[in-house]
Amino acid sequence: MPFTRLASATTPTAHLGLGLAAVGRPAYITLGREAELPDRSPEALRTRTHELLDAAYAQGVRYIDTARSYGRAEEFLGEWLRLNPEIQDLVVGSKWGYTYTGEWRLDAEVHEVKDHGTEAFARQLGETREQLGDRLDLYQIHSLTPDSPALTDTALHARLAALAADGVTVGFSTSGPAQADVVRAALEVTVDGERLFRTVQSTYNLLECSAGEALSEAYEAGLTVIVKEALANGRLAGEHAPEALRAVADEAGTSPDAVALAAVLRRPWAGVVLSGAATAAELHTNLLAAAVDFGTAQLDRLTALAEGAEEYWRHRSRLPWS
């Protein structure tokens, strides 16, 4: 698996990754983007993406996360990789299953459309290959939910197994209040007696911990666990951070986002924790998580911030695309 490269990496930030959702398209669900991205033109976001990739690699990040539905993120990443052919130690993951439909507009009525069928997989794999070539290490089903046909579609499973046989690791991501159920169901998916999925990417943070036990089970089963939305779409960063989180950050001499990410990094099953930074300065404070230290009593105060899964996802559904 490509993640063995991360396991052997010596940089303190090797288990922190960079996700490109916030810079591959003009609209995304993250608080505070108005100030971070005043110019949302394709050229401006291409430049910003390349700046972030430069900064991330220089600071030891070795995993990059993108998706077909992240606007032009795969394109921007592919260009950067071709501009830097000497960089061969990155692990590159992308996702299929959503099509970007926002037409580069902030006010689009529908930003993305979900389709987990075999035809969508074949089409999007071709598109991803066009942008990333042979640099694709991991391809994940984007946002599996309990009603997704991808959990039971044996024809799709056969195609995914063929991709794995071709050297690309196959995984899935989850969303919504039933993440734990989906993780456990996906662990049962096999092809020719072998477990199909080798990675899982789930939302987990100080406010939404409901998938924790299932992610631990996935880790024990041999899957690499990738954590997304560790800052809860901006709710655990800057002025939006809860008072208890800001207090612990002050005591630790760092920022709320670094503490929130560090709390997730402490989970023994967390293989990679993603930053969704939109600026190099924000990325820098995120990466300080690798060095944050706090005690058990402080961690208990942070754990008390957890919300119920249904409450958390209702709140998330009301956050604006900005």
Automatic annotation (TrEMBL):
InterPro entries hit by this protein: AKR2_Oxidoreductase, NAD(P)_OxRdtase_dom_sf, NADP_OxRdtase_dom
NADP-dependent oxidoreductase domain sequence ranges: 49-306
Pfam family, one: Aldo_ket_red
Protein name: Aldo/keto reductase
Organism: Streptomyces boncukensis
Taxonomic classification: Bacteria, Bacillati, Actinomycetota, Actinomycetes, Kitasatosporales
